[in-house]
Specification:
407 residues; alpha/beta; 7-stranded mixed β-sheet; 4-stranded parallel β-sheet; 19 strands; 22% strand; globular
Length: 407
């Protein structure tokens, strides 16, 4: 079967590219090794961390674009960022929606007991904004070892407790297991009963972000009714249940639209003729499957997603063998001090693209005319320092697909 657009990568950038293509009425295929990095990192939607006090996010983005002409945001443009966010938000109507408070970053608590800035917050975390020291109870569950309520509470100057549950007796249980148990009414009733034994009338209760995979607002509302106070989620160590909710929502929407999403598909290489990709090979040992399309969009991420490979000498892109913008030698990947005030050059490594997100070389020459690139695999950004990961993925995935399908 032949497609209008074949998307390689099932992270947020690939999923946003898919949505943009479907909205344009195109026939697409999405391929990925797994469910992407949403299950690892994403809890809320980071757009841009560095900001000037008193300015809105729109004003800060405008200034950032002006000062960083090679950044992916500069290729998207302010209107493109706004349109892409609107497209993303359309998938999350109430009750489980995302919102920006005052069109600025808000500070939400973390599992390390710190506050971090983020832009779009899921409804389940909204009550944790403007953390009221001393008026909050942090709750952990015995057997779940990726959240330490007393440590968080000590840092946030409030109270923490750990409750024991009969339905969760085994130490080392996973976040997925606990999130699924949260969707059982009897489990929530036991949680509420245990908390009320230690409740001193706090105005809010912070839980690890495990309030169900599919109906988190139903879980949250029921616990609030049973306990009698407001509840909010605190992001935890990976895996990210809020990130998995995003993935499952995209998957549900794409299935409803009849879009094939092939997980467990490891792309071996693209078949190139001249300056065009004519097909890609999928490895299913001992078999090899070939898929073809008019256009291809690469959204495989950097090192975590396998979009970039590093050996002892160089960083490479394995599917299309695209040139990678990187330091001249391995010795230049990192600065002399690990905690240097400047970011390590390796964090800027990635694929160079033109203003339409097509891959180019150092001289600005187009490499493949029917391939587009999106997401964190792009060069000239450091999403960790910028706190821009989800914003880059949403904006570039959306715009790269639109550019691809306008040709």
């Amino acid at each position: 079967m032949h497609y209008d657009l074949l998307i390689i990568g099932t992270g947020l950038s690939g999923l946003m590219a898919a949505k943009a293509a479907v909205d344009l009425g195109k026939k697409i295929l999405i391929l990925g090794k797994g469910i992407g990095s949403l299950s690892l990192f994403s809890n809320s939607i980071d757009l841009l961390g560095p900001s000037q006090q008193g300015r809105t996010m729109e004003e800060n983005l405008s200034l950032w674009i002006k000062n960083h002409p090679d950044h992916p945001y500069s290729k998207v443009g302010l209107k493109g960022i706004e349109d892409s966010l609107s497209s993303f938000l359309s998938l999350f109507p109430p009750p489980y929606s995302f919102k920006a408070l005052g069109r600025r970053n808000s500070l939400i608590p973390t599992a390390a007991g710190t506050l971090r800035p983020t832009y779009l917050i899921p409804e389940t975390m909204a009550e944790g904004v403007s953390f009221p020291n001393g008026k909050t109870l942090i709750v952990g569950i015995k057997g779940y070892k990726d959240f330490y309520p007393h440590y968080v509470a000590d840092q946030m100057k409030c109270r923490g407790i750990t409750i024991s549950l009969t339905d969760f007796p085994n130490p080392g249980e996973t976040a997925n297991a606990l999130a699924r148990l949260m969707e059982k009414k009897s489990f929530r009733q036991e949680i509420a009963s245990k908390i009320k034994e230690h409740f001193y009338g706090e105005s809010r209760i912070g839980f690890p972000a495990l309030l169900g995979l599919h109906n988190p607002m139903e879980v949250k509302d029921d616990l609030e009714r049973l306990i009698g106070t407001k509840i909010f989620e605190i992001p935890t160590l990976p895996p990210s249940i809020p990130g998995m909710r995003i993935f499952y929502r995209f998957k549900e929407w794409l299935a409803h639209k009849g879009v094939p999403l092939l997980l467990g598909s490891s792309v071996k290489n693209g078949i190139i003729k001249g300056k065009r990709c004519v097909a890609i090979h999928i490895s299913h040992p001992p078999l090899m499957t070939t898929y073809s399309a008019d256009r291809y969009l690469l959204a495989t991420g950097r090192f975590t997603g396998g979009g970039l490979w590093a050996d002892r000498e160089r960083i490479s892109e394995p599917i299309f063998n695209l040139p990678v913008k990187q330091p001249e030698t391995r010795e230049e990947w990192f600065r002399s001090h690990f905690f240097d005030s400047l970011s390590h050059p390796i964090h800027q490594a990635g694929i160079m693209v033109n203003s339409s997100f097509q891959p180019i070389d150092e001289g600005g020459n187009l490499i493949l005319e029917n391939v587009w690139v999106a997401g964190t695999i792009l060069a000239h950004h450091n999403w960790m320092d910028e706190k821009s990961r989800e914003g880059i993925e949403i904006a570039t995935g959306y715009m790269a697909a639109r550019y691809a399908l306008s040709t």
